Amino acid sequence: MNTGMTHRVERRQTGMVVVALEGDVDLQSSPEARRVLLDAVAHGGAVVVDLSKVGYIDSSGIASLVEALQKARQGGSRLVLAAVSDAAMRVLQLARLDRVFVIHPSLEAAITGDR
After folding, report:
1. pLDDT at residue number 115
2. Per residue in 4-32, pLDDT tens?
3. Domain harbouring 38, CATH code
4. pTM above 0.90, yes or no
5. Distance from the CA of 73 to the CA of which of 16, 39, 40, 88 falls in 20 to 30 A?
6. Would you tell me the crossing angle of helices 59-74 and 30-42 to the nearest 10 degrees?
7. What's the domain range around 102?
8. Whole-angstrom Cα distance, residue 46 to residue 41?
């Protein structure tokens, strides 16, 4: 059963953008996730991706995250992950991307820069 994916984008006064993904980030929903993430990165400020409510993420979803990270680095901004769900963390660890992304334990820690 595919629960689908929803997202929420919150622009902070500090210029930071918080993108919260929720549900399944898979082949069906990853084009939307990619669009939302790249749009947030194009904004130019720091981007925090809240993965606390992601129940499932596949390689296409991971590819969207990696592409957004690369675009952020190219543009001189930063993209970090926050409150990564157990399911998403397992996939990141399998791909060894938990060493590539800056991962904060909570959204609050990501916003304040605490690790």
Report:
1. 57
2. 899 999 988 788 999 999 999 999 999 99
3. 3.30.750.24
4. yes
5. 88
6. 10
7. 5-112
8. 8
Residue 6 CA to residue 13 CA, distance in Å, equals 23
**Phi and psi for 105 in degrees, rounded to 5?**
-70, -25
pLDDT number for residue 113: 80
Contact status, residue 75 vs residue 41, Cβ threshold 8 Å:
yes
- Structural domain tally of the chain? 1
CB 67 within 8 A of CB 38: yes
Q: How many CB atoms lie within 10 A of CB 82?
A: 22
Gyration radius of the chain's alpha carbons: 13
Residue 40: partners with Cβ closer than 8 Å, 6 or more residues away: 9, 17, 19, 47, 68
